[in-house]
Amino acid sequence: MNDFIHSYTAGYFDGEGWIVFIKNKALIKYNQRNPIFSLRLGIESTDINTLAYLQKIYGGSLYTRRKKRAMKRRLTKL
Prior knowledge:
The protein is an alpha+beta fold.
């Protein structure tokens, strides 16, 4: 993988990406006492081709959702 692709992805993520840090409650039925933390990264865009290319390189899941008038696609779990 060359530096250009990593630089492009960093710029694309900076403009279109998001990071979420989630704290879930402890699961009592599994006898856990501590909360579970998870981190999600994603990029949201209307350009499916770019997201599909990034998914091919980095992996993750590609979702499509409708939001009012525009069709948006989301790549998560990078």
